Amino acid sequence: MTLLYVTENLVSSATLIDNTYVSTEDAVYTVDKLYNKRPSYPFRFTDKDDEWIKVDFGSAQLITFIGLFNHNLTAAVTMSLEHAAADAGYALATTPVWRSEDLYKQFRRNNRWFRLNIDDPTNDSNPQIGEFVLGVVSEFENARVQPGRRDGPKFHMADNVTHYGQDWSSHYADCESFTITLKNINDKNAVDDLQTFLKSIFRNSDGKFILIPDHDQPHCYYVQVKNRKDFAVREVYGTKELRDWKLELETLTKGITLL
Asked: Which residues on neighbouring strands pair with residue 107, listed in sequence order?
């Protein structure tokens, strides 16, 4: 099992500048919601047929990952990602595969323009995307994820109890939480891998990144690191030093019930 990650979303206000870069745009769920690091506040089209989003990197940019988070696309959707040297003559880069949950696809293209095409005519509402990510996939080459990973849903609830013992609960949002452990034995390269990774996500993206726990599975998550210190524990000292690295992760919430 190889743990993959993306630390930077290259879709931004500099590359997806305004609403001329999308086919249609809702008045409230606007284009900037595609990259605001808040999947719970999505972008929304105003139609269902032949919709598109264009990104201009200004010059050739290597892209190896596309991810769509908190989308409402249906199983009947048709999607394609295209690329071009100019805003014309697009060629197919990859075809994302639909999932009801967050979805991603790995590929490899180096070009200036990318365009995501979406056609979802049977959708009960207009298509929406909580976060549109184009980036470069990395992996831990030296450290390995250990068995026994804890994960599962976390529910944000309000629990209320009266003075007479009556109680009721309200559901506001939910997310996924993970505990990932990586081990290495006296391996400076593995330590360098993890140090570089942690510095990158905290300095550049507020501790947020895209997590692919297993490269053989379709699951991907937009997560935030919840622990901010004491990542490594030295369990054995000497020439065969054993370190446990633990990351406490939680996905960014999606559906939110406002108070």
From this structure: none
Report which of 183, 95, 118 is spatially closest to residue 145, judged by C-alpha positions. Answer: 183
Rounded Cα–Cα distance for residues 254 and 175 (Å):
7
User: Which stretch of 74-78, 81-85, 135-139 has the lowest confidence by average pLDDT?
Assistant: 135-139
Nearest of 64, 77, 80, 253 to residue 173 by alpha carbon: 253
CATH placement of domain 144-251: 2.40.30
**Does residue 185 carry a pLDDT above 90?**
no
What amino acid occupies position 169? S
Q: Do the bridges between strand 138-139 and strand 4-6 make them parallel or antiparallel, or are there none, so unpaired?
A: antiparallel
Direct distance between the N- and C-terminal alpha carbons of the chain, in angstroms, rounded to an integer = 41
Name the residue type at position 175: C
Residue % of the chain over a pLDDT of 70? 86
Sign of CA dihedral 184, 188, 190, 194: positive
Nearest 5°: the CA angle 198, 107, 88 is 115
**What is d(CA 177, CA 110) in angstroms, rounded to the nearest whole number?**
34
Instruction: Please check the confidence at residue 116 and state whether its pLDDT lies above 80.
Output: yes
220 backbone dihedrals φ, ψ, rounded to 5°: -140, 155
| The domain defined by 7-136 carries CATH number 3.20.20.510 | no
13-27: burial string, b at 16+ Cβ within 10 Å, e else: eebbeeeebbbebbe
What is the phi/psi pair of residue 4, to 5°?
Answer: -110, 155
- Cα separation, 224 vs 177, in Å, equals 10
CB 129 within 8 A of CB 253: no
Q: State pLDDT tens for residues 20-44.
A: 999 999 999 999 999 999 998 999 9
Residue 48, pLDDT above cutoff 80:
yes
